[in-house]
Write a structure and sequence with these properties.
alpha/beta; two-stranded antiparallel sheet; 2 domains; Rossmann fold
């Protein structure tokens, strides 16, 4: 089958399944199925039989709204590439806002020596931060052992295994000591809103990493109580926020003696990263 016909059929199938960027995702999955770059895709007309079979299986999975990252098994984030699995959230570009804020508040790349990531998932935040601070070591904590194991694989993939450790545990309750930087992308979706998530998320990504309780703030209460005991003097914490949560989390933080240094918006204009320190 010709490439153009294969892509047209796949794009129509994905469009009918409700995929907004159907044509783009069809090309992306064909590149993955054949092991091609986008440039190589443009240079080929015929498709190897094994590539066709792999592509059609991928289109079948995507038409059932399985995320592309779970089909390919990987996702880019910041400047690194990460293995992903249904045990963790897929790294998203909005979360890169936390790293941008951190780099602005800790511009001296030699000054940060220790970084803690609570709810580490794939390890994308922690490992990306370590790639920017060459003298730092890191600890990532996740309640799911499979997530911690995946993060260890990602450390190896990105050449950072000797500067990081991952453990399964109940967040800050499992951690002793203080850190120059604390990062966290906690569960923050209100429980009632879980039923309205896109099917790509609701059916495939782990609910424990999404559900923030009745008001979406359960994890922030724990974090704000813990941060005064986890931060070094002159340290800072950067927390990811859900839409419309900046004021509520600011109030929780200030009640625990923390100062809000910045609330940074992502590219979509959502207040996404809250930077905290001792007041």
């Amino acid at each position: 089958m010709r490439k153009i016909d294969l892509l047209q059929q796949a794009g129509e199938r994905l469009f009918q399944a409700g995929i907004e960027e159907a044509a783009f995702e069809a090309r992306l999955l064909l590149c993955w199925a054949c092991g091609w770059t986008r440039m190589e895709l443009m240079q080929h007309d015929g498709i190897p039989a094994e590539g066709v079979d792999r592509f059609q299986r991928a289109i079948q999975r995507r038409s059932q709204r399985e995320p592309v990252a779970f089909i390919t098994g990987e996702q880019g984030f910041w400047t690194l590439d990460f293995h992903v699995s249904p045990e963790t959230l897929i790294p998203r570009g909005d979360s890169e806002t936390l790293l941008e804020a951190l780099l602005d508040h800790k511009p001296d790349r030699q000054s940060v020596r220790s970084i803690l990531d609570l709810g580490t998932g794939t390890g994308c935040l922690l490992l990306s931060a370590l790639s920017e601070y060459p003298r730092a070591w890191g600890l990532g904590v996740d309640i799911a052992p499979a997530a911690a194991a995946l993060a260890r694989r990602n450390a190896g993939r990105n050449g950072l295994s000797d500067r990081v450790a991952f453990m399964a545990g109940d967040w800050a309750a499992a951690v002793g000591g203080r850190f120059d930087v604390v990062l966290s992308n906690p569960p923050y979706i209100e429980h009632a809103d879980m039923a309205h998530l896109m099917p790509d998320v609701a059916a495939y990504e782990p609910h424990r990493a999404l559900d923030g309780g009745d008001d979406g703030l359960v994890a922030y209460r724990i974090l704000c109580r813990s941060l005064p005991h986890l931060l070094m003097p002159n340290g800072c914490a950067v927390l990811e926020l859900g839409m419309g949560q900046a004021d509520a989390v600011t109030e929780l933080a200030e009640a625990e003696g923390l100062a809000v240094l910045e609330c940074r918006k992502d590219l979509g204009g959502v207040e996404r990263a809250l930077v905290l320190a001792f007041s």
